[in-house]
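We store chain and fold; example below:
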Amino acid sequence: MSTPAQDDVLANPRVLVIDDEAVVCAGCRRILSEEGYEVHCQQDPRVGLQDAVLGAYDLILLDIVMPEMDGLEMLKEIKSAGVTSEVVIITGYATVETAVEAMKQGAADYLGKPFTPDELVVVVQKVLECAAMFRENLALRRELRLHQGFEGIIGESRCMQKVFTVVKRVAPTNGTVLVTGESGTGKEMVARAIHRLSPRRDRHFLACDCSSLAPSLLESELFGHVKGSFSGAIATKKGLFEAADRGTLFLDEVANISLETQGKLLRAIETRNIKKVGDTNEREVDIRLIAATNRDLGKRVSEGKFREDLWYRLNVVPVYLPQLKERTGDVPKLAMIFLERFRHKNDVTVQGFTPEAMRIMESYRWPGNVRELKNVVERLAILCDAERVEPRHLPPELGQTRLDHTVVALPRSWEEFKELKQQVRDAAVRDLERRFLVDALQRSGGNVTQAADDIGMQRTNFHALMRKHGLTAEDA
């Protein structure tokens, strides 16, 4: 059995046992000492109360029935004195009423006599682990009020620190930046951070999703058009290049730009001159260009779908955003940040996550990256019916990504095992199906019709599967 030190809950936690029975004190001391705890015992309840108030213990095991002083009365005294120690009630009368009353008075849990060594160790470890997580949640919330990450981007992992280093170096320059990474990793946030740290921070930051417009409309959106240049051009329009003059222009999903428009974009980047659709005159513009894509542009070049010279022009300073599953240690902090936001936004009372729930979230692969995590946490903030998010509150796909999280306890009969085996199979298929859909959507840039055609499925059936898994085109 692992020790608390091994589990990183607390180093050599201090435990006080207050029980008038010598055999209980001796047993608790022997069992918990073997697990790495520092154990102190008091058989006199009044001496024990004084020790509890002054001794700075991590946990107090308190018998509920003792001569001279009732355990519930002592619990009230301990809590009214402002003692922060976790309290576990020991009772030979383990009724529901007793447990409920103890919890109302501030007890973290209770043990009914007689209890086994394993029961004692499990309860003590669980209470201390939950207390440690609660303190961590509070510390995170305090930290969040003072510090909101690097330009609003949260990430303490080594790979994100590398991203921040590149951003800080390139931001003060006019260098063109190409931000790459999967959908949901925060490419536009990085682009905005570069703008905020640049000398152009007081000018416009304009963004264009190059995958959302037809080629003819995209050209007009970027460079503008003159009145009458095409059907529907009822007035002269200024394009984004011109509107972003002396500021920053962010082109998202540049891999989806048509080859014809790519040529005009290349000329605009090289000459810093643009020509409106239908116009004969060029005008000079001064913009900082940042592009982004979730596709491999080098592969697109080799396939003849992207101009090599444009790729070189865009890829002056590359910034790669890692997937969330690569960002070791960032999930807990991101989850707490999102929870704190949604707590205030929706006026809900959920305070944090249990250790078990957070372990499951950290082990999940997060195919939708930070965007998926944000959506899940918002759902949890609204639907959670407890003070902290527990494993039972998590979406099924999170708890079913690894067998050790799915199978909480081994079945005791062959029939139960067969049922569990089917559940595991169903969970694996659901996860695989969702990943298959997300991958198809990502390859098509979020175009549902194209994704359905690509995998050989009717569009209506593809939409039905998306609804089943709670996916939208924006998730890709």
Residues 158-322 form a domain with the Rossmann fold fold (CATH 3.40.50.300).
